[in-house]
Amino acid sequence: MGRKWNNIKEKKASKDANTSRVYAKFGVEIYVAAKKGEPDPESNRALKVVLERAKTYNVPKAIIDRALEKAKGSADEIYDELRYEGFGPNGAMIIVDALTNNVNRTASAVRAAFNKNGGNMGVSGSVAYMFDATAVFGVEGKTSDEVLELLMEADVDVRDILEEDESVIVYAEPDQYQAVQDAFNAAGVTEFTIAELSMIAQNYVTLPEDAQAQFEKLVDALEDLEDVQQVYHNVELED
């Protein structure tokens, strides 16, 4: 699928290493997920998915506990889940997912990030049709054949299994997220380099060097926004 998950993860980890931004965003996401049901991951699938992803980003337990305690308490902050679609340099496609308690603030900030960095906002549906919602898992210490075998034994269907650097990446339908995780857990695999529900582009593009520099600046500007949780795109970034 050409996603280069490990390289992207390392880039994001390096970028976020000196800030608390990523932890603050997870705090909001955990709170919102916990409020969708019980603040217990065993009975709240949305929360379980977020907590598993938080582990892959090494979110401190204190951040997680604080968000869960807030959800259990009397706090009742209202957050809207929003999706914006737009284009970057050379027609690159971008999806921006946000959680916000102020829709006007977020819409204005996202639009400004696009406009100031060589992009432009699109209408709903202008980009998303070129992406597929996907469950993505990454594991180390196993070959692709071993992963295929354990998933087949658990009768779990997946879209693709690829080896990337030292990891094996599994792509599956979103509704197979829990089944894939359970299959790994049953085989003794409980640690993941990737564990998330994502939007995967159907086709990736490579940009000229100058356009890529501008594109990365746009993505950075979007990811720096307080209310933005995820930015997906169809650009094959160079290492």
Automatic annotation (TrEMBL):
Residues 79-235 form the TACO1/YebC-like second and third domain. Keywords: Cytoplasm, DNA-binding, Transcription, Transcription regulation. This is Probable transcriptional regulatory protein GCM10010913_15830. The keyword Hydrolase does not apply. Residues 3-73 form the TACO1/YebC-like N-terminal domain. The gene is yeeI. It is found in: Cytoplasm. HAMAP family: Transcrip_reg_TACO1, Transcrip_reg_TACO1_YeeN. Pfam families: TACO1_YebC_N, Transcrip_reg. It comes from the Bacteria. The keyword Cell cycle does not apply. Belongs to the TACO1 family. YeeN subfamily.
